[in-house]
Design brief:
four-stranded mixed beta sheet, 9 strands, alpha+beta
C-alpha cells in the first residue's frame, strides 16, 4: 500500500512545487524590471506607460507599489500635476491598507508573505508626502507643500514618541520645511526647522548660510554664537532687495533592493528567512556649478540617505516577521504530519512540508524607483537668469534658472 500511494502522490507533490516556482517567477520586481530599466535610462514615456498598465491591470496585491512607481516616474519627468494625482491615490490606498485583514493574515500563513497586499515600509509612506511637497513647491504652491512636509514631520514624531519606533526625523523634510517658511517670509518658523535639520544632519555645510543668517535676524544670540563656532566661515548678511536664492535638490542613485536573508529565530537558533536591504551600485560623485564659474562649484550636501533609513525601518520589523514565520512553521508542520498520516507515507509528509515551506518566501517587494540619497546645494545670487551645470549620475546637465527678489527658486533633478 505505501508504494502504491507514493506512486500516486509523487507527481501531485512535484506538480504543486512546479506551480509554486512559476508563481514566484512572476513577482512584481521581476515583472516590472523592463519598466525600471527604461526609467533609469531617462526613457520616461515608456516607464510611465508600463507602470500605468500595472496600476490598471496588474495584481491588486501590487497596486500600491505600481502607483508609487508611476508617481515617482511622473515626478522625475517633470509631469508634476499628474504625479500629484497618482501619489494622492497611492496615499489614500496606503491608509486603507493599514487596516489589516484577518482573512489575509490567515492566508499568508499557509502561502507566502508575497501574497499579502503590499502596504509599504514606513519610510516609503513618508516618501509619498515628501515627493508631493517637492511637486507642489516646484509649482509655486507653497501652502500645499507645507501641508505635506508637516504630515511627514508629524507622522514621524508620532512614531518616535508614541509608538517608540527607533527612527529619527528626516533631515530633508525639515530642511525643506525651513525653505518653504523662509520663502513665505516667516523667519522664526524657518529658523526652527533649519535648526532641526542641522541637528539631524550634523553638518549642513554650505546649506547652513540661511540658518546662521536667520539666527542673527531673529535675535537668537545664544544660537548665533554656537552656530558661528560650527560655521566660522559664514558671515551672516541680510538678503538685499535685488538678491534671491537657488536651492538644488538632487535625487540621486538607486534605492536599496530587498534580498533573501536569514535571522536566528529564537533559543533553538533555527534560521528563519527574512528580507534584508542591499545597496545597489550607482555613481556617487556630484557637482553643481553656477554660471560656469569654477569658483562657484560645490559638492552637494547629503542630507538624507534612504539606504540607511530603509535598513533601520526594516530592521524594526524583523521581530514581528520572525514571529509570523514561527506561526507559519508550526502550521506547515501540522499539515505535513496530517498528510503523512493520511497516506501512511513519511515521504508524502516531507514533500508536503517542503512544498508549503517553499511557498512561504520573504516579501522582496519595495519602492525601487526611489533615490538612494537626497543631496542639496544652495546659492545666493543677484535677481535674474542664471545657468546651472549639474554633474550627477555619470552625466552632465545644464539648465536656466530665473531668480526673483528675496525668493527661493527650487530646482529638483533626478539622476541614477
Amino acid at each position: 500500500m505505501p508504494r502504491r500511494v507514493l506512486a500516486v502522490r509523487w507527481p501531485v507533490a512535484l506538480g504543486a512545487l512546479a506551480a509554486l516556482l512559476a508563481g514566484c517567477a512572476g513577482d512584481y520586481v521581476g515583472r516590472t524590471r523592463g519598466y525600471r530599466q527604461a526609467y533609469e535610462s531617462y526613457q520616461y514615456p515608456a516607464a510611465v506607460q508600463g507602470f500605468a498598465s500595472e496600476v490598471a491591470s496588474g495584481p491588486q496585491i501590487d497596486t500600491l507599489l505600481s502607483m508609487m512607481d508611476e508617481g515617482m516616474v511622473l515626478h522625475a519627468s517633470g509631469q508634476l500635476e499628474q504625479s500629484i494625482q497618482v501619489l494622492a491615490q497611492a496615499d489614500k490606498l496606503s491608509e486603507r491598507l493599514d487596516f489589516t485583514s484577518i482573512s489575509e493574515e490567515a492566508k499568508v500563513l499557509l502561502s507566502s508573505e508575497r501574497e499579502r497586499a503590499y502596504r509599504g515600509e514606513d519610510f516609503e509612506k513618508l516618501m509619498i508626502s515628501t515627493l508631493q511637497a517637492l511637486n507642489y513647491a516646484q509649482l509655486g504652491k507653497d501652502e500645499d507643500a507645507l501641508v505635506e512636509v508637516r504630515r511627514v514631520n508629524e507622522r514621524m514624531q508620532r512614531w518616535i514618541n508614541e509608538d517608540k519606533k527607533p527612527y529619527q526625523q528626516l533631515a530633508v523634510s525639515r530642511y525643506l520645511t525651513g525653505v518653504l517658511w523662509e520663502d513665505q517670509g516667516h523667519a522664526d518658523d524657518a529658523f526652527i526647522d533649519y535648526m532641526e535639520a542641522n541637528n539631524l544632519a550634523g553638518d549642513l555645510g554650505t546649506l547652513a548660510e540661511p540658518l546662521v543668517r536667520l539666527a542673527k535676524e531673529t535675535g537668537r544670540d545664544d544660537a548665533l554664537r554656537r552656530l558661528k563656532k560650527q560655521y566660522p566661515w559664514i558671515n551672516p548678511q541680510p538678503l538685499g532687495p535685488q538678491e534671491g536664492q537657488i536651492l538644488v535638490v538632487l535625487e540621486v542613485g538607486k534605492a536599496p533592493i530587498k534580498t533573501n536573508g536569514t535571522r536566528a529565530g529564537g533559543p533553538t537558533a533555527e534560521l528563519i528567512a527574512v528580507p534584508v536591504f542591499r545597496d545597489r551600485p550607482w555613481p556617487r560623485e556630484s557637482l553643481v556649478t553656477l554660471d560656469g564659474d569654477p569658483a562657484s562649484s560645490v559638492r552637494p550636501t547629503m542630507v538624507t540617505s534612504l539606504e540607511q533609513v530603509a535598513k533601520i525601518h526594516l530592521d524594526y520589523r524583523v521581530d514581528s516577521l520572525i514571529a509570523r514565520q514561527f506561526g507559519a512553521l508550526a502550521l506547515r508542520a501540522g499539515l505535513a504530519a496530517g498528510a503523512g498520516a493520511a497516506t501512511h507515507s513519511d515521504v508524502v509528509g516531507i514533500l508536503t512540508f517542503l512544498a508549503l515551506s517553499y511557498a512561504n518566501q520573504p516579501d522582496l517587494r519595495s519602492w525601487l524607483s526611489l533615490p538612494a540619497e537626497f543631496q542639496l546645494a544652495r546659492y545666493r545670487v543677484p535677481v535674474g537668469q542664471h545657468r546651472l551645470t549639474v554633474v550627477a549620475g555619470g552625466g552632465v546637465r545644464e539648465l536656466q534658472v530665473d531668480v526673483r527678489p528675496r525668493r527661493v527658486t527650487l530646482v529638483v533633478l533626478r539622476s541614477y
